[in-house]
Amino acid sequence: MDLLARIERREEWGRVASEKAQAAGDGFLWRTADKSQGGRGLPAREATTPRPVPGRDEHRDGVLYVRLTLRAGELAQQAEPGQFVMVKADDGLDPFLRRPLSFHRINQERGEVQILFQVKGRGTGLLARRLPGDALQLLGPLGRGFTLEQRMFPENGAGTQRQRVVLVGGGIGVAPLLALAEKAARGGDEVLLLLGARSRDDLLAVSDFRALGAQVHLATDDGSLGHHGLITDLLDQVLREDAADAIYACGPLPMLKKVAQLADQFGRPAQLSLEERMGCGLGACIGCVVGTKGPGGQPTYKKVCQDGPVFPAQEVILP
User: Fold this and answer.
1) Which of 11, 39, 166, 291 is most buried, judged by most C-beta within 10 A?
2) Class at the top of the CATH hierarchy for domain 276-319
């Protein structure tokens, strides 16, 4: 479905917001502007003057992450956690290709969806300039999302038991996990978030998960907040304590590979959301293939945009 969505609210996480968050003892604080303010709420220069497009290294001195709330009623009705949209970054033809962004939040009642992205290159830099009231061209919902596991107990009349759902996020990989956490919480599941990042500056949506009643455990590479080390260290501990029924993960490839190994070691079902470069999002360009195990364990290839981006951990072959 190709459609226009209107930006209702824009929130940014940058160096200044990061310093305020540290002072507040929270890993998450946004500067916000909404449509009713006409873009106000952000500093005046940001609402009126185009920001230079950040380079891959320059972005850390300015806006690091942006979250957009979009008015898109039909899209909100169809979207599922783990699916994504292809977003046109600018009204012109440069860049020509759209950017794939997962659904961060889905609100069917309000007819809204949220996307959360890191400002890294030209496309995301242009998208980060957009303000409330602007229209965005979207293609979606696309791909296969998460499926919440349900354990059945025939001896109890084929009833179901409250699940202990463990979400594992690495950096911006937290983006699709909030929508999944909200769906799991609505279904009565217990939600545990294990979120890792390079530093406390890069821990996102912490307060949103806590507002759902989720348990949250954090890890940072530099030890600035939470466990000093890898988030998979905490997953190993959770699995040894038999505190997980199912695992859902999104993040960098080394993290996903370790999650798959741990899930196999402890015999837990796991689903992985893969982050791949996509040209079209429709399977036509064949630019996002991933190795998988076919019938009889024979290696084959699938398209992340069509067959994923969410795959069972035991199905994908991670290098």
Assistant:
1) 166
2) mainly beta
Domain locations in the chain as residue ranges? 2-142, 159-273, 276-319
pTM, two decimal places: 0.85
pLDDT by residue (tens digit) across 133-177? 999 999 989 999 999 976 544 444 555 577 899 999 999 999 999
Q: What is the pLDDT of residues 288-298, one digit of tens each?
A: 889 898 887 78
**Beta-sheet pairing, 84-87 with 99-102:** antiparallel
| CA 235 – CA 273 distance, rounded (Å) | 17
> Among 98, 64, 71, which Cα is nearest to 84's?
98
pLDDT tens-digit series, residues 302-312 = 988 898 899 99
* Rounded Cα distance, 211 and 166, in Å: 16
- Cα(209)–Cα(192) distance, rounded to whole angstroms? 9
* Helices marked H in the chain: 15-24, 44-48, 73-78, 122-127, 177-186, 206-211, 231-240, 253-266, 304-307
**Helix or strand holding residue 31 (H, E):** strand 31-34
